[in-house]
Amino acid sequence: MAEVPRPTEKQAALPPQAIVMQMVMGAWLSQTISAVTRLNIPDLLKAYGPQTALRLIQDHDVGARPEFLERALRACASVGIFSEDAEGRFGPTAFSEVLTSSSAVSVKKLTEIFGGTWWKVWAGLPDALRTGMPQAKAQLGMEYWDYCKANPKEMEDFGEAMKSNSHLSIRGVLEHCDLSGVKKVADIGGGFGHLAIALLRRYRDLRGIVLELPDLIPIARKHLGDENPEVVSRIEFVGGDMFGEMPAADVYLMKHIIHDWDDARCIRLLSNCRAGLVGNGRVICIDAVLPPMGDTSGTPAKLLDIDMMVFIPGKERTRKQWEELYDAAGLKITSITSLHDNFGTSIVEGRKT
Ligand SMILES: C[S@@+](CC[C@H](N)C(=O)[O-])C[C@H]1O[C@@H](n2cnc3c(N)ncnc32)[C@H](O)[C@@H]1O
Fold first, then answer.
1. Nearest CA to ligand 1 atom 13
2. Largest CA distance in the chain
3. In ligand 1, which atom is closest to the CA atom of 194?
4. Residue 340 bears catalytic tag
5. What's the DSSP call for residue 93?
6. How many angstroms is it from 100 CA to the middle of ligand 1?
7. Once rounded to an integer, what is the mean pLDDT over residues 325-346?
8. Tell me, what's the pLDDT at 341?
9. Count of Cβ atoms closer than 10 Å to residue 123 Cβ
10. What ranges do the domains of the chain cover?
11. Is there a common fold for 9-97 and 161-352?
């Protein structure tokens, strides 16, 4: 596998206007990477080794024009997604590896969805800034979760994207959250159940509930694939509304849920969890915690914050804002642990006050 190129001194010495234009052209780069990923180029190069654009099309039925595909692959190779040689052959790299379906830490689905429906909705950003309103309805004709319900393929792709984005944060939860002795964990809006399953694999006496939109449940079950039947026997998928009554549990998990909603809905969610808590249980949210004002770090979480602004009435929050939410729901944050994942996620753990 070819080495991933690092910025040269010449690139590092670029004038500000050239650096800013590179940032702005990041949107084009994102689209190009997404389009070639949708054509399965990373998978094909992994399976068959370096190929020209023409060979990819002739031998593997890639639906593209040779010259156009070559131009797209060259743009990707310029940032290390593929290698490129003088004969016009493109090969796999460590970056293209994570865009393959077989990678253990694959971001293929997420990359594809960024360049698809999400790209459409992002076109509404200027209107979101002007009106303070998310733009899914304006761009897709309905709110995002309704759009998913009306388009099962989108719902499945979104679920897969969430799952594929979760490898590092799940590893972080396994490392930092001790669930020894816990009887029941409820993953609220748990998608395909990937977090719950990881925990049930680790803790043999633990039982799990995944509360999800009813339409997602059959898709989630399908994606269980060849998961260990013993683990599956300890998980229950419940179709319902997270703003209704919560199933009772010792530990509630909400991964990338709180950032989807406005403060009033978040307080309701956290209060519902509090009401369902058995004994001195815990409410664990896995989401971004933004640095305080004046700290310019945390670009991935700050961009995810814009994604929330554009799509849904949600947002990323600072530690202080998290504390206010927990406090309003009768909970107290006991620890915040930052993880090194794709979006700068943290584990926010709390108990009843
Ligand atoms: C951002 S995704 C997070 C999925 C998963 N927790 C993860 O991090 O991979 C939000 C999830 O909330 C679910 N959801 C949205 N509204 C819901 C509702 N009213 N009741 C239950 N689940 C809901 C969606 O189907 C989606 O799977």
1. 189
2. 67
3. 9
4. no
5. B
6. 25
7. 94
8. 84
9. 12
10. 9-97, 109-159, 161-352
11. no
Q: Which residues line ligand 1 (CB under 6 A)?
A: 145, 162-163, 166, 189-191, 211-213, 216, 241-243, 255-257, 260
Q: Counting atoms of ligand 1 from 1, which one is nearest the CA of 241?
A: 20
| Single-letter amino acid code for the residue at 235 | I
Q: How far apart are CA 128 and CA 262, in angstroms?
A: 15
Specify the residue for token string 């519902």: 272
| 248: amino acid identity, one letter | A
CB 89 within 8 A of CB 49: no
Enter the tokens of residue 107: 């971001």
Which residues sit opposite 286 in a β-bridge? Answer: 255, 347
When the candidates are 3.90.245.10, 1.10.10.10, 3.30.930.10, 1.10.630.10, the CATH number that belongs to 9-97 is 1.10.10.10
Mutate to test the pocket of ligand 1, among 195, 197, 212 (most ligand atoms within 8 A of CB): 212
CATH number corresponding to 161-352: 3.40.50.150
Rounding to the nearest 10 degrees, give the CA dihedral for residues 121, 127, 128, 133: -100
Q: Of all atoms in ligand 1, which is nearest to the CA of residue 259?
A: 1
**Model's pTM, two decimal places?**
0.93
| Dihedral (CA of 190, 195, 197, 203) sign | negative
Q: For 1-16, what is each residue's pLDDT tens digit? A: 666 556 566 667 899 9
The C-alpha atoms of residue 47 and residue 73 are separated, in whole angstroms, by 17
In tens, the pLDDT along 114-132 reads 999 999 999 999 999 999 9
How far from 264 is each of 69, 254, 271, CA to CA, in Å? 48, 16, 11
pLDDT tens-digit readout, 243-291: 998 999 999 999 999 999 999 999 999 999 999 999 889 999 999 999 9
